[in-house]
Amino acid sequence: xxxxxxxxxxxxxxxxxxxxxxxxxxxxxxxxxxxxxxxxxxxxxxxxxxxxxxxxxxxxxxxxxxxxxxxxxxxxxxxxxxxxxxxxxxxxxxxxxxxxxxxxxxxxxxxxxxxxxxxxxxxxxxxxxxxxxxxxxxxxxxxxxxxxxxxxxxxxxxxxxxxxxxxxxxxxxxxxxxxxxxxxxxxxxxxxxxxxxxxxxxxxxxxxxxxxxxxxxxxxxxxxxxxxxxxxxxxxxxxxxxxxxxxxxxxxxxxxxxxxxxxxxxxxxxxxxxxxxxxxxxxxxxxxxxxxxxxxxxxxxxxxxxxxxxxxxxxxxxxxxxxxxxxxxxxxxxx
Length: 335
Ligand SMILES: [Mn+2]
Description:
This protein is α/β, with parallel strands linked by helices and 335 residues long. The chain folds into two domains: 4-208, inorganic pyrophosphatase (n-terminal core) (Alpha-Beta Complex); 217-333, Diaminopimelate Epimerase, Chain A, domain 1. 39% of the residues lie in helices and 16% in strands. The chain contains twelve helices and eleven strands. A six-stranded mixed β-sheet has the order 6-7-8-9-11-10, with helices on both faces. A five-stranded parallel β-sheet has the order 2-1-3-4-5. A hairpin with a 4-residue loop joins strand 6 (227-229) and strand 7. Helix 9 crosses helix 10. The structure holds manganese (II) ion. Manganese (II) ion binds at residues 31, 97, 123, 142-143, 173.
């Protein structure tokens, strides 16, 4: 939990700074980009400069959140430009929605060598302690809730733009208020953010009703290949490179697909395997609460939360599938 003292330290650190670089984890989700956007807004409101940088390309349906495209490290910005200062000089690093080196890809190479203070705002249980000051609250459903707490603690103005960004953060990390982490605090925060100017119908439309035809076709192929095991308690979903080729969809199009099979009543644990160009698989894990998928992900070098986690697995597919299926079966039989 975060204390009043933690917020005071964060506010002091912010007040002392003038120029921020703001980032989040690789494969940014709505919580990551929503918090990045709100921190950039706070900086400009306080008369400071803030440069956002992403560590991998965002899904297309998050692009509306930023006024202009955010540069991606390794694409528009090279590591060298961070190191030699041509991307900018900074006196504060703001990292939201992660506290782990592995989730920062190349950025960690710069971070480890820089002596700039770091403010971490995160809601994950595990972390590497990257921050000079850390606002870590694992009881928060989204990092957006902690940013909201910070704004209130500091008595900084919450503009409609900030309210919208924080609503995006909280609504996406709770699966639009459906997941197990949707509690009274989430609903209170959502309600306050609406009063502050967030427009749920606009946000929902921008984020959830803007599939490309290619993405819908990819979803259809994935559902067509759905595998159910253990009397339907386990669901495995698979997307191969050939599915991308056949539909024209891209990697970010698979976001949230892992949740689709949870429409089936019997499903307690689910996995989505997405084949990568190196023949390995990115595997997303979900649970209805009866299986701790973070433990399973950690066994293979991944991480996450109890009900949502991720891990990269070696191919071939049969190998990746068996690893997860065995762990799911073990966890269900221990129940
Ligand atoms: Mn999050």
